[in-house]
Amino acid sequence: MSIPNITETLLNAKKNKGLSFADLEKILGRDEVWIASVFYRQASASDEEAKLLVEALGLEPIYIQELTGYPVKGLGPVVPTDPLIYRFYEIMQVYGFPLKEIIQEKFGDGIMSAIDFTLDVEKEADPKGDRVKITMSGKFLPYKKW
Amino acid sequence: MSIPNITETLLNAKKNKGLSFADLEKILGRDEVWIASVFYRQASASDEEAKLLVEALGLEPIYIQELTGYPVKGLGPVVPTDPLIYRFYEIMQVYGFPLKEIIQEKFGDGIMSAIDFTLDVEKEADPKGDRVKITMSGKFLPYKKW
Amino acid sequence: MSIPNITETLLNAKKNKGLSFADLEKILGRDEVWIASVFYRQASASDEEAKLLVEALGLEPIYIQELTGYPVKGLGPVVPTDPLIYRFYEIMQVYGFPLKEIIQEKFGDGIMSAIDFTLDVEKEADPKGDRVKITMSGKFLPYKKW
Amino acid sequence: MSIPNITETLLNAKKNKGLSFADLEKILGRDEVWIASVFYRQASASDEEAKLLVEALGLEPIYIQELTGYPVKGLGPVVPTDPLIYRFYEIMQVYGFPLKEIIQEKFGDGIMSAIDFTLDVEKEADPKGDRVKITMSGKFLPYKKW
Amino acid sequence: MSIPNITETLLNAKKNKGLSFADLEKILGRDEVWIASVFYRQASASDEEAKLLVEALGLEPIYIQELTGYPVKGLGPVVPTDPLIYRFYEIMQVYGFPLKEIIQEKFGDGIMSAIDFTLDVEKEADPKGDRVKITMSGKFLPYKKW
Amino acid sequence: MSIPNITETLLNAKKNKGLSFADLEKILGRDEVWIASVFYRQASASDEEAKLLVEALGLEPIYIQELTGYPVKGLGPVVPTDPLIYRFYEIMQVYGFPLKEIIQEKFGDGIMSAIDFTLDVEKEADPKGDRVKITMSGKFLPYKKW
Amino acid sequence: MSIPNITETLLNAKKNKGLSFADLEKILGRDEVWIASVFYRQASASDEEAKLLVEALGLEPIYIQELTGYPVKGLGPVVPTDPLIYRFYEIMQVYGFPLKEIIQEKFGDGIMSAIDFTLDVEKEADPKGDRVKITMSGKFLPYKKW
Amino acid sequence: MSIPNITETLLNAKKNKGLSFADLEKILGRDEVWIASVFYRQASASDEEAKLLVEALGLEPIYIQELTGYPVKGLGPVVPTDPLIYRFYEIMQVYGFPLKEIIQEKFGDGIMSAIDFTLDVEKEADPKGDRVKITMSGKFLPYKKW
Amino acid sequence: MSIPNITETLLNAKKNKGLSFADLEKILGRDEVWIASVFYRQASASDEEAKLLVEALGLEPIYIQELTGYPVKGLGPVVPTDPLIYRFYEIMQVYGFPLKEIIQEKFGDGIMSAIDFTLDVEKEADPKGDRVKITMSGKFLPYKKW
Amino acid sequence: MSIPNITETLLNAKKNKGLSFADLEKILGRDEVWIASVFYRQASASDEEAKLLVEALGLEPIYIQELTGYPVKGLGPVVPTDPLIYRFYEIMQVYGFPLKEIIQEKFGDGIMSAIDFTLDVEKEADPKGDRVKITMSGKFLPYKKW
């Protein structure tokens, strides 16, 4: 997988329009992380959402169709090399088993869904240095027995 | 890397004592996720914390020294096969670039620290099915120029 | 990951008792595939199920605790070398994209759950050679937008 | 391997014609999953089938030759990153050994063919959420001794 | 996967008995390559074959059960390092596509079965140096359409 | 490595001329498998052979030079995904050690050459289904001591 | 990841201008290693820095925007093949654990930041052969407990 | 490669003696990083050095022989998972090409030796947080032409 | 890494001029292996050498600059598939540890430099078949202690 | 593959006897590199050679049988981490294609055998630092056409 061509087009248009993802959040009524996922073709927009987005960015309607298709998901190498993205790999490597232990204790045998799932990013002001706050909320899915 | 021998000892002792990680949270005054990380030797306890933990679990003091050592971190294969842990890999694959986009827009060029970092798990009751809520808070570290 | 020690104990006990998985299906009231998953520690039994299983196999009650724990899942190498198991990898390689196309057309953007999921194996008599019939049923999970 | 250029041409033509794979199933007299496999060049059509398909999609006859060639099969990375396709990898990782156990008990030492093989997808309405039902039928091939 | 413990036991017993695989071929009425596959637990013997083999090697009957089990198949690393075995990997790398071309031209879209399959090794005397002659015979399996 | 551009040119020309590899075998006086290897640039033709081939296919003489060059050999991914080619990988995985055992017993410590090597494919009619017969003949090379 | 197109443009312009990185260090007031990182799009310049750089190299202002963007970082294969770069991989392989031991003894459980980090290269004259002196300075980040 | 057994013995003895690597530096007259490399069997001690070390740690002379042997070097997985060690991998990924550019500009085509090489770690007090200072000094080796 | 474009240009020019590497050895006063390394951009020529080479091959002076640049080195996949090149990988796999043993016994703990290094190829006539003689000469570099 | 247990036994016995490989060369009448290959179970000794070796090392005759068996060859990871052995990997990466070019020009399409092959190591005194001289001699094997 590599970054789709449309991503650069969208990011450039957004830069030229001087829009932030927070601005787009207001226009689309969707969270900025989800909108960034549409930019990278990791989420599919409805016709309505795609139209709003394309208009906001001043792009031709021709892009609407691509944004509403169901993309092949997953980007980048097996182990990411970008330091920002790698930190999430590291969290999975270091805290994966502890998280499994805690989630199982609270919920039983199952998983946190990455599909019925939301993801938010907030900036927390802190005198010792601002903090990135990430909130994930995924439906617990218990293993079905049959 | 493979799961350390001490992990099974600690988990069995905890089971026999009928203690939850939430119980240990009260005893140690540390978050349950962090305590689970100590169980898996992904975090190092102070002498005081190790002593409290070993006592609570009814284990011999001999384990204190190991729990205070600085462990080699990172567990499991390059791509995890356990479905619960894999979902965090999937989140990194699918949402890694969107997260990078949003964090950079809010903070500039840099990363969310995975060291000056906390991680919490909560159970959110939901009539459509309970949800796992995970909150990460990491200090933003801007790239230094020199 | 490697095959757990308990798996061989269970398989040998089953062989010595002359029991088939179909026999165990009747005893436990669970599907034989699910029971085989418990043997390989890919599924966790309830206390009741573990007790029934251990008794049926003539094993000591000491195994009950292990069978009710929540296992680390996923077995074998990244690409399986066993020809029977490899064929499922091949099906994923050859028919993965076509399946994605059909599922998305029928359901929209989302996945078939591998957690809220059942799996059955049947033997279909056929004059040209018996056939293996595998039926998977997984809940469709649409991508949540937020 | 990467997705062939012809795939996009076929998918776009299908979209423009407003045809579903179910529609094509009626036109070609072949299962929709098999037809999707032809789209992704994982199966080869007969001249007759290719002609029917190309006509239905309103494409030039020039594509017929490519669709009847015997393709190099297998798509995507060693471990798929797309969540929908990954779930089939996960099923193989988690249930591969249990499936091997059950198939061998029922049939003896051998495999389920992935060549003399059919694959169907159905939508099962369910009040708790629709389900994806996948049915595989492969000829059992016993290991030949010599 | 690694070489099973029983393999060394069998090979040592064979050495001590001064038997060649050709000798065992006469005793079991099976080809020597197939018998060597049983030694490496890549093929499963019938009770009768296992009994004959164990007796010929002067081993305890306790090994019969293991030899009749259905083994997990596939040995060695992803790319073999042993020069003799590597040459077969090299043949697949260099001649794989040409073989595909020829087999498809002669038979159509399908594969040579590696299950309904026999494998023979002969020594061909040659004044310029003896030659290894390997004969593979596998049933052609055409892709089923559905 | 990926399939060379010239391969498609040669295969298309062959198709347009309605020639089989067996036809080319008669024209060049070389085995069809070897000729297919030239098509995939895994073997180098002499000037004479290249000229005969290019003429038979009705191509410009410009291709002669490329066909006589010494190619970089080896095609496809580390583990092949095409089912037909994969079966040769599987044979190496499953029967590699047994083959090593038999060859060493017959010849001593050494290898079967993949260079001083021939490879033939025949179609064997069989009422239970035609069979692919592959014959490899490679010079035995004993390890030199020094 | 592969080397960005802009890198070659910048390196060629620098060559044509006859400038060394040390010259650019004086012009930008930034260390030459950091400037080389900007060339390879591993660091992002401010508008001011990008303008100075583009002017010094005699390039069009159009490149300024790209140089100020936040790049995807990390270049080259998993294990580098270039001998100069490999030596840093080798240092990590050979001295990684000793470094961990020493840093932990001096600082406690934590890491040396690769973000709040500087890197200098000096040439040390030495009669037995000049030496490369590399100085890294990274903020120590202690693991946060929570 | 995995961490040698002797490493744990040496680290435990050092802990029990209450010695730091800085203490050992004074006793052996060698840098603490080099001594830590001996602990991890990445460097070989002279008889004299091994004797001093074993005596200082209160261990039996039996360990001297092992410490003077020439070890197989390189520890840990292809991409390290321990966060402290990973940062050196990240530095190589992010700054490898810039370092190559600077070293080549200063020295010509060649490498920094990782053999004729020294490595020092210092603690730099800093009001904004202490810093880890690492100094590498490797002989420049120009590519020989012949 | 992939083979640079300039390599094909140089090889074609050499072919058209009817020059062997031995001819170029006489013209440049450098060994033919080194010159072939320049062709593949694994070694950098001086201005003088590049000029001589470009003239001998009848190419435009524009190529001189590229040939004098310091290339990124290392070609081909992690494990080579070309049989000729693979044999050097095999020699490293099979004889790597024995070579380490002998070199260390003769020289102590250290390495043979691959930088201060020469490589020659000779053809040795032999009635049983000509032999390839390869001579490597690399400076021994003892591990520095500090 | 990992280093066989017998290797350590042989190396320790050799150390205790105060023998060098050069001494063993005189005793066995075989080259020291070949003898080191026997130590690492990469070459098989004759009964006579094994007997001489075992006697010279003062070991029990029980080891003779193991040393005359035909070993599984190839040691260490896919990419070696030991710096001495890695340099041979690097030579293959950097000089593999140039060597292919030169060998093909001198000999035609074929390979240098790694089986009908000898390998010698010499110490060359040099005032600028002693040099390791490695001489490989392998029979040229031309590709057979058929």
Automatic annotation (TrEMBL), chains A, B, C, D, E, F, G, H, I, J:
GO terms for molecular function: cyanate hydratase activity. InterPro entries: Cyanase, Cyanate_lyase_C, Cyanate_lyase_C_sf, Lambda_DNA-bd_dom_sf. CDD domains: Cyanase_C. It is an enzyme of class 4 (lyase). It catalyses: cyanate + hydrogencarbonate + 3 H(+) = NH4(+) + 2 CO2. Its EC number is 4.2.1.104. Residues 74-146 form the Cyanate lyase C-terminal domain. Keywords: Lyase. The active site is at residues 87, 90, 113. It holds the Pfam family Cyanate_lyase. NCBIfam families: cynS, PRK02866.1. Catalyzes the reaction of cyanate with bicarbonate to produce ammonia and carbon dioxide. HAMAP family: Cyanate_hydrat. Belongs to the cyanase family. This is Cyanate hydratase. It comes from Anabaena azotica FACHB-119.
